[in-house]
């Protein structure tokens, strides 16, 4: 297991290099540049800007320069947020995104998994329909609707919680964005949990366990839960990477200083260094989380091994 | 770890040996059997009917309403539902009939959902199953490719597609299908990794069944539960993703519209003109409910173990 | 230009220059208020500021959400009153030679940076040289090209020391121009022209804008800066008018979503929200009327026609027909409804001194316009049976979409079949600049209150010349205005240039921008003005509310 993990971590380097290379050229081939705006810059000024960011060099040179800087841990200055390096922007914004995202995932797991299990046990009962319909409502309403709705109702009309702001991550400020962010995840997890629990409960060895006279709850908790978590865990790898890197919608509605906005704004502004910074960061997270997922598989199901 | 190891056979997993290998029988009997079981599921049948009504309404509805898709009623800009004027669900911010636009938008959204979901289903399931089944180096390579696809900046991918192929509605399907299969492949691979060590798969091997058949006849059918659920979760995702592509200029262009676009237009009006949000949302929600109950019914009907 | 009174607030410097029609009578209160303000509770002003600033280096900023902050931190030689009029800033007076080519600025006595270092004319020289240094890559550098050698310095041909600015003594700055400039005072009032703390920049380099390092000359100092969260300013005790500053703290919140800003305002979490959502405008008029401030600004919303060969609108008859058939009041009143001013002109009306140019059909009835438009289309060979297919491009935004849809509907009766195409801003403006469009949305907001700023965009060699206008007549007018020192002559030249744009239907102007803000009625010292400048030093909260 250890050698497998080490091997995967080593493989991450060439994988990331491919991601960086593809993204770099993809981004630079796309039309529109960092200085294309409503007011076009006079040629003298644009020339000064291009020189300041080395954009006047041939593209392969710029690529090598980027790689060289990256090896030294330098992600370069942002085009848009000129007073900060990209690494500073990410390291200052990530804690907020992480805090929000971890709470949302925790809430989604703690609520979604039990709901899915209950719905699976009481399959086709009223409880099942109520739980699943509620979950569906969570899926049917996109978060760009839920977030402003929550802010409006609880922040403005009722005045129970702040309508926005971060305030260092105080719980009052966290509550609404966590709810907005987790509703959909709860629904996803509950739905998937129900489906895979039904599969597992119908399997041969669960029947055997029941036949041995174990109580239903014992059967579920000791024998069915872990294997039933498998698809949920598969889903969670990439999902967690997405959630802890923030959501531009949630951040804009609630005024959260996270990094989700950088993924969208960076691309829209053609903030090349910022885009590359987010790509490197997100790519590394994806690789790490999918590795963790693969390791978790063999804990959930001892038959899954990666020996070679 | 050992004290919680579950079953007597020392296995866990999404499905298991069940007396005889639960392979899906081929051909007619599968569909006929499944259909018979599906018909007994009341929630699924209701959903089927409602779904059919929605699809029909979207297909022929725009012809029946007294307004054109792009017809501006200068005297009814942003007005609420009103029977007298004929705008039964109100108008949008430009004074265009909301019902007409919602039904029209349904054509786009439903077709995006259908095609993109199908593409992601086919690619994702096959890719994931092959990767999980062969394992080892193949699996490693295939999954690193998935990781790379996850990491590429989606927006630039889309913008480049637009440059290369021009603005084309089918591109939406391609672009969406091209990203949505990733999750599916990870899920299917996880299931297959667990399933392939089960007795019925080994039994199939022993009987000399070829690899491809093992995958399609034994592994995929047994991973169907999570797959079907994930498909029903993919539908709202692609419908809303389409509205984001429209933002970039790749999606539908005015005067055409879609549910995703209508909902994102309507969200700003939730307090001042709620019908603009509620009408398209209601159609989307109804569709999702139907799909989910239909999906659950289908899963039950196709389950190799309950046969 | 004569020397002016050293007293701040004493008199507005050039009343003719700016918008006196707009300014309310709040100018005086801005000065009087602070002295007697001794409120027991803390005066903390929270502002929903639209976006995170790209920089707090005044020479790297150009958005209103950025200069709002840098103006609180750095005072230029010439400052703005609460009404947006030019008043003495760090310079207490200044004079120019008879030919308008040499200018002398006299700094106030005893000026200090917030860290106690003396503030001298050398800091002003340093700032202007830095502004024009190529490596600074300041966006607005061309505004300063009238200064001797400015262009050569900015393009790297000459060293910054060759720029026509000098400090004969610690309190005197001289600026030499290569040709007279009617707008020098305005450009020097921009925060990018403010003196900079060269001792800090020398010591800290690129990190000089961090709260721990920055020394300021304005009414406030930078206390904290958390990107995407908040920027806090506290009063600068060494500011030359520190005793007139009432606020104890100013908090700038980078709230991008106007709906979020409205929510925060309604929840009492901010006292000022810049920008209100169009979707809630009527609602705000009904429910928050006392806080709503709507006023015209120096901005124009218009479409450009592609005049290049091969474009369907290269034919002027078609362009005129489209201009005729566009019902501007319908767009401003029914589609937008925020008090935008329909444009029969191109240069915004709020630019008080520049008026007169307008379409010759502005007073026609709609029927007459439509009849003429049909006739022109018929001449050009188009009509309901032989429709003209036209692609309308706009950058993705809800309001742009609404307007584009309305235009399509208005032109339909002429037999014009409009296809709408939206893209994100970067692609949109790139395509317009490359001439890859037929009819495209555009908007301009003035950097300084000067019609030249708008009209210069259509000179043949200007990079903003999206229509591809190539007219020696027009170029000559613009070129002459650039070098004209006489205000009257210059205005005439600019008027003629504007009329040329309208007569030739180069553009399809729709309306003059307005800006809408929510300002807590408990705030005094806040006055609407077309430049949309509201320095925090004039603001005060009535905490008894």
TrEMBL record, chain A:
The chain crosses the membrane at residues 12-30, 100-121, 133-158, 170-190, 232-254, 274-297. It comes from Cobetia amphilecti. Residues 94-297 form the ABC transmembrane type-1 domain. It is found in: Cell membrane. The gene is oppB. This is Oligopeptide ABC transporter permease OppB. The keyword Oxidoreductase does not apply. It is a multi-pass membrane protein. InterPro entries: BPD_transp_1_N (IPR045621), MetI-like (IPR000515), MetI-like_sf (IPR035906). It comes from the Bacteria. PROSITE patterns: ABC_TM1 (PS50928). Belongs to the binding-protein-dependent transport system permease family. OppBC subfamily. PANTHER family: DIPEPTIDE TRANSPORT SYSTEM PERMEASE PROTEIN DPPB-RELATED (PTHR43163). NCBIfam families: PRK09471.1.
Automatic annotation (TrEMBL), chain B:
The keyword tRNA processing does not apply. Keywords: Cell inner membrane, Cell membrane, Membrane, Peptide transport, Protein transport, Transmembrane, Transmembrane helix, Transport. The chain crosses the membrane at residues 43-64, 108-134, 154-176, 273-294. It is a multi-pass membrane protein. Residues 1-29 are annotated as: Disordered. It is found in: Cell inner membrane; Cell membrane. The keyword Secreted does not apply. Residues 106-295 form the ABC transmembrane type-1 domain. Belongs to the binding-protein-dependent transport system permease family. OppBC subfamily. PANTHER family: OLIGOPEPTIDE TRANSPORT SYSTEM PERMEASE PROTEIN APPC, OLIGOPEPTIDE TRANSPORT SYSTEM PERMEASE PROTEIN OPPC. This is Oligopeptide transport system permease protein OppC. It comes from Cobetia amphilecti. The lineage of its organism: Bacteria, Pseudomonadati, Pseudomonadota, Gammaproteobacteria, Oceanospirillales.
